[in-house]
């Protein structure tokens, strides 16, 4: 790396470093510790983007670190949800499997179209992150709340569909896109 990591980058890196510890506590079935670690991970996610913008330290590397940290945190937390609440998750698998399938489709389409994964960071992605964070953290502390489980995964499905549409609409990969509405509002010339 040419430049030193800034504080926002370090927050993303800390989220990545957190993952092995999270997996160990999931395997040990220490629900409350998992809840605290997932909460810490989501807080670093909220802070890294805020600090990068506030300190004017946004970068492609920072966006990539943030995306990697997000994917690892969410994948690990979802694994924990399955591990700790297998019966419920299996019985209510359709929203999670639909969201994961659409996410993978978007990832593949982005790789085909742009040669790399997208980092749209849409408003819907932020809403989904909050919904998933609330659902996951509350699940590890108090048990699964079914309506929150469905709300989080329906938000994830809507996000994935929007991002699939963005892959088809945007000729070149762009980072930090507000959403499909704003892209379409800009007009075809700006894509």
From TrEMBL:
GO CC list: membrane
Top-level taxonomic group: Bacteria
UniProt keywords, alphabetically: Membrane, Transferase, Transmembrane, Transmembrane helix
InterPro entries linked to this entry: CDP-OH_P_trans, CDP-OH_PTrfase_TM_dom, CDP_ALCOHOL_P_TRANSF_CS
GO biological process: phospholipid biosynthetic process
Keyword Hydrolase: no
Keyword Manganese part of the UniProt annotation: no
Any one GO MF annotation of this record: phosphotransferase activity, for other substituted phosphate groups
One Pfam family in the UniProt entry: CDP-OH_P_transf
Bilayer-crossing regions: 7-27, 33-53, 65-86, 92-111, 123-142, 148-170
Family: Belongs to the CDP-alcohol phosphatidyltransferase class-I family.
Protein name per UniProt: CDP-alcohol phosphatidyltransferase
Source organism (scientific name): Pontibacter korlensis
């Amino acid at each position: 790396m040419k430049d030193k990591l800034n504080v926002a980058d370090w927050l993303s890196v800390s989220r990545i470093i957190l993952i092995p510890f999270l997996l160990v506590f999931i395997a040990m079935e220490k629900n409350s510790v998992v809840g605290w670690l997932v909460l810490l991970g989501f807080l670093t996610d909220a802070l890294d983007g805020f600090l990068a913008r506030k300190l004017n330290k946004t970068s492609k590397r920072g966006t990539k670190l943030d995306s990697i940290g997000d994917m690892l945190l969410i994948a690990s937390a979802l694994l924990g949800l399955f591990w700790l609440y297998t019966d419920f998750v299996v019985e209510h698998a359709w929203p999670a499997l639909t969201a994961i399938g659409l996410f993978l489709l978007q990832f593949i389409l982005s790789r085909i179209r742009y040669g790399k994964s997208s980092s749209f960071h849409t408003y819907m992605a932020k809403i989904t992150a909050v919904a998933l964070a609330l659902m996951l953290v509350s699940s590890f502390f108090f048990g699964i709340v079914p309506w929150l489980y469905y709300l989080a995964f329906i938000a994830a499905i809507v996000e994935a569909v929007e991002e699939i549409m963005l892959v088809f609409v945007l000729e070149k990969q762009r980072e930090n896109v507000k959403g499909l509405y704003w892209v379409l509002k800009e007009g075809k010339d700006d894509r």
